[in-house]
Amino acid sequence: MMYSALEAPRVASLPPLRFAPHTLPAVEPPHGQPAAEVVELHRHADFLLRWQALPSTRRPPLYLVFMVTEGEGLHRIGGETFYVRDQALCFLGPAALATWQPGPAARQGYFCAFTEAFLLADREDKTLLRSLPFFAGPSAATALTLPAEAGRYFLELFEHMADDAQAEPAEAAPLLRAQLSLLLLRAAFFYREGLPAGPLHSAGQRLTAAFLALLEEDLAPARAGEPVRQGSIRAYARRLGVSQNHLNDAVRRHTGRSAGTLAHDALARAAAELLARDGRPVHALARLLGFASATYFARFFRLRTGYSPSQQRRHLNRETA
Hints:
Elements: E1 22-23, E2 39-44, H1 47-52, E3 63-70, E4 72-77, E5 80-85, E6 88-92, H2 94-98, E7 100-101, E8 108-114, H3 116-119, H4 128-131, E9 141-145, H5 148-164, H6 169-192, H7 203-223, H8 233-240, H9 244-255, H10 259-277, H11 282-288, H12 294-305, H13 309-320
Antiparallel strand pairs: 1-2, 2-8, 3-6, 3-8, 4-5, 4-7, 6-9
């Protein structure tokens, strides 16, 4: 059975990112010693920068499974590019993980990195990982787009793992191992149902990827506190050398949403990021984001998120207090 991509949740519906990483332990054993039993849980993909900075001889052979809960974007894995969005469950083998370049948007969610030694520590059958279709080889990489009910199921599994990780390592390890095994086995069922998103090969997929890249490029100055001005969909189509209708059709076919909706969602995410880390008044941020007035910005932001900019900022301040 095939499932279509679903609408992204509103920004306001996303869970707060307050989960601290847990490691059991995160170092390679000396040569000739048993393989390290490593598991790490994170809420942001930036932990990979630390891991990838290690010399290859010191990196444990980590597998990665993660679920995106906010944003969307392009992920470069070796020679392939994947379009990943919310409700996506992704798998990377050790070799693929070493070459992964996470996009700036779709990099928040639940990230679980683990070694084969950790997962199989109490199993007599040591072939589990290699029997899973999404870990068929060390360079394997897969993105599954989940239907809503399945997305809730896997999100709850990750939330349970986050709760269990708060225990002492000796108590947490068997709980995490059991839940991770369940997650992988259940995901294998969905994989066989035909859900893999696959790399971008078709002309429509490449056009969608190019459009998303332009959105990120145009909004990038905001992250440095510089003014931005997002173009119209007609202007993006001209930059891409296609008609507006052709761009809209391609984007909707491959994401389930219109080009305009994706552009507005990207602008709302950029606004939410600024409200979280930039202390300037709302009217100053409105100008920076290209809005003619603070009133228009507030109307836009409330429509996309359910909150006014001021309410969003107060909410974020309470979360970090």
